[in-house]
Amino acid sequence: MAKITMTVNGRQVSGQCDDRTLLVHFIRENLGLTGTHVGCDTSQCGACVVHMDGMSVKSCSTLAAQAAGSEITTIEGLAANGELHPVQAAFKANHGLQCGFCTPGMVMTAVDMIRRHGGQLDEATVRAELEGNICRCTGYHNIVKAILAAAVEMGGARVAAE
Amino acid sequence: MYETHYHRASSIQDAVKLKQAAEEGKYLAGGMTLIPTMKQRLAAPTDLVDLRHVAEMRGIKVTGKTVRIGAATTHSEVASSAELAAVCPAICGLASHIGDPHVRHMGTIGGSIANNDPAADYPSAMLALDATIVTDRREIAAGDFFTGLFETALEDGELVTAITFEAPAKAAYQKFANPASRYAMAGVFVARRDNGDVRVAVTGAGSNGVFRHRDMEAALSSNWSPDALASVTVDASDLLSDIHADATYRANLVKVMAKRAVAAA
Ligand SMILES: Cc1cc2nc3c(=O)[nH]c(=O)nc-3n(C[C@H](O)[C@H](O)[C@H](O)COP(=O)(O)OP(=O)(O)OC[C@H]3O[C@@H](n4cnc5c(N)ncnc54)[C@H](O)[C@@H]3O)c2cc1C
Ligand code: FES
Ligand code: FES
């Protein structure tokens, strides 16, 4: 057992857990943030994606201890002041989900993808970037549409702000 | 996962000491191989020594044509390094096709070569670039480093700290990725030096792990073109057969990937 401290969605949190505790279990069980999902046992599905120090990682394949001292953002940390994040809004507008199980990981992946590629995203890039995220419902088309729409929206917002 | 003890190393010396003190410890780099393996209970280290915070093991340095990549440098850092792309874009391209973005944010070059998975991408680059593997105690030529399936020349507790190589005149890597896992079913890295020396290294296909294909090297040394490979045979008897591809299919893939790599270089 160790005491672990990290910043989650802008708030400093601490919890006791085993050294072997996975970050996803720390987030779900110690912190009660159940938006982050576990969809597989093989590190392949991406339902568990969160951001660690600004980069997407699979929280099912990272120890909570590795994340100690880091800044973590989960799906719960995206919306601000009761307003959906542009990527969340785009998933809603484009029907980018059906059962919704993969959605938190998809949205966190999309935010990271847009951060890295900005307005340069095209369909082929989005599909290649979704390599680590599996959806068994949508057939991906509307997820890709949602991400492209959000990239335009966020790119536009950035231009407007400058 | 079985119980374990986590330690965070602050320097190379600290990492080696922590590992020495552990009963059955393991270094933990990106964890992208080790943690899934521990989750499956196929590995049960008593202690983990985290290398992610060892600053002297991170980063890319290019001096003229000499490249040094810290062992704890992530795949995404290699993929997106402009400095590295200027002298050896082939290794950036290779890194950009490892797994998926999340794996690339954590996984490291040192972890990949220390693990020496027969389907991993980096070992082929190390062999074709004639890289040197730098450890806490010595330097090992890539040709002596990869000794078999998941086997390397590393001694107990030996830590890979960096890899170095001289950028070649031309190089490229092409892989036929397993459609599900994205690991190489056959991957070929070709490199040509200013003096005309050619190296061709094959991963994903050999039943004993990564290997050099000397006949292809000879053919390409006299004629650097995809056509030069037409008459070279790839012996299927030394290749892997599994549910994804049998040895004869892999033999053909090796040749096709080699031709594509030469065309792309
Ligand atoms: C979904 C998925 C897809 C993947 N796809 C690919 C792919 O397409 N191609 C590919 O090549 N790989 C792939 N990988 C593997 C990935 O590249 C790993 O990052 C890599 O193999 C191991 O690097 P790591 O830093 O994560 O090492 P870890 O998992 O932390 O460690 C691996 C092993 O190396 C040892 N080790 C680590 N660092 C050192 C060091 N500096 N010195 C000595 N020993 C060390 C550890 O003790 C451990 O035994 C994939 C992984 C996943 C989860
Ligand atoms: S739960 Fe993390 S990749 Fe599937
Ligand atoms: S919406 Fe059901 S798994 Fe993606």
UniProtKB/TrEMBL annotation, chain A:
It holds the Pfam family Fer2_2. InterPro entries: 2Fe-2S-bd, 2Fe-2S-bd_dom_sf, 2Fe-2S_ferredoxin-like_sf, 2Fe-2S_ferredoxin-type, Beta-grasp_dom_sf, Diverse_Oxidoreductases. Residues 2-78 form the 2Fe-2S ferredoxin-type domain. The keyword Metal-binding applies. GO terms for molecular function: 2 iron, 2 sulfur cluster binding; metal ion binding; oxidoreductase activity. It comes from the Bacteria. This is Carbon monoxide dehydrogenase. Keywords: 2Fe-2S, Iron, Iron-sulfur, Metal-binding, Oxidoreductase.
UniProtKB/TrEMBL annotation, chain B:
It holds the Pfam family FAD_binding_5. Residues 1-170 form the FAD-binding PCMH-type domain. PROSITE patterns: FAD_PCMH (PS51387). It comes from the Bacteria. One of its GO terms (molecular function) is FAD binding. SMART domains: CO_deh_flav_C. SUPFAM superfamilies: CO dehydrogenase flavoprotein C-terminal domain-like, FAD-binding/transporter-associated domain-like. Keywords: FAD, Flavoprotein, Oxidoreductase. This is Carbon monoxide dehydrogenase. It comes from Ensifer adhaerens.
